[in-house]
Design brief:
Blueprint lengths: L6 E2 L5 E2 L3 H4 L19 H12 L13
Antiparallel strand pairs: 1-2
């Protein structure tokens, strides 16, 4: 049985798994492209969310219980 994942021995010490040797360091995440959208500002996004969550479609029955 291969020991792919990290494990812990009886003394609480970490035993490194094989994934550490087959995955290049700092290369396990794919860089996501960044899109620049100058038409939206944080306030506009917030206002759109507020409108949705306060509408009949986006509101939940318990959100006004307090």
């Amino acid at each position: 049985m291969r020991n792919e994942y990290d494990s812990e021995n009886d003394n609480g010490e970490i035993i490194p798994g094989e994934w550490r040797t087959v995955t290049p360091e700092n290369d396990c995440f794919v860089a996501l492209p960044r899109e620049v959208n100058t038409n939206l500002c944080p306030e506009d996004t917030r206002n759109e969310l507020v409108e949705y969550f306060l509408s009949d479609v986006g509101s939940l029955e318990w959100q006004y219980d307090q």
